[in-house]
Amino acid sequence: MARFYGYVGFIETVDDGTGIWEERETVRPYYGDVSRNIRRWDHQQNATADNLQLNNTISILADAFAYENLEAMRWVEYNGTKWRVTSAELNYPRITLFFGGVWNGPSD
Fold first, then answer.
1. In the chain, what is the straight-line distance between the N-terminal and C-terminal CA atoms, in Å?
2. Distance of CA 84 to CAs 15, 21, 32, Å?
3. Which residue from 72, 65, 74 is spatially nearest to 100, judged by alpha carbons?
4. Residue 71 has pLDDT above 90, yes or no
5. Model-level pTM?
6. Are 31 and 5 in contact, with CB atoms under 8 Å apart?
7. Are 23 and 12 in contact (CB under 8 A)?
């Protein structure tokens, strides 16, 4: 099992005080283990290039912030790329993150 150290991005929708809602990103570092490392190419009809999809699983040692903001977890940085978190499983004191395609959302 490989070791992991990287960043996890949390995105919350908050009111800026004037009634306008905006997305606010918080980035935090975590340690953990890579428990599954699978890559596949996703070929789509009428596409010029295949998309790389990761079916990876990382188990992070979670802190109170991660447990309180589990629903806001959006991406994990792995091998220098931000990947979209597709689901998360609570295994106290860890959170197992499943991630797939490249994150294309907002970033700092």
1. 31
2. 24, 22, 17
3. 74
4. yes
5. 0.79
6. yes
7. yes
Structural domains of the chain sorted by starting position, each given as residue range(s) with its CATH number in brackets: 2-102 (2.40.10)
Report which secondary-structure segment, H or E, holds 68: helix 64-68
What pLDDT shows up at residue 63? 96
**Residue 6 one-letter amino acid:** G
In 3D, which of 72, 38, 41 has the Cα closest to residue 58? 38
Which amino acid type is present at position 43?
Answer: H
Give the pLDDT confidence score for residue 81 in this predicted structure: 87
Cβ atoms < 10 Å from Cβ of 84: 16
Of the candidates 64, 70, 74, the one whose C-alpha atom is nearest the C-alpha of residue 89 is 70
Q: Which phi and psi (to 5°) does residue 16 adopt? A: -80, 5
The 3-state DSSP class for residue 48 equals coil
- pLDDT on residue 41: 57
Q: 48 pLDDT band (50/70/90 cuts)?
A: low
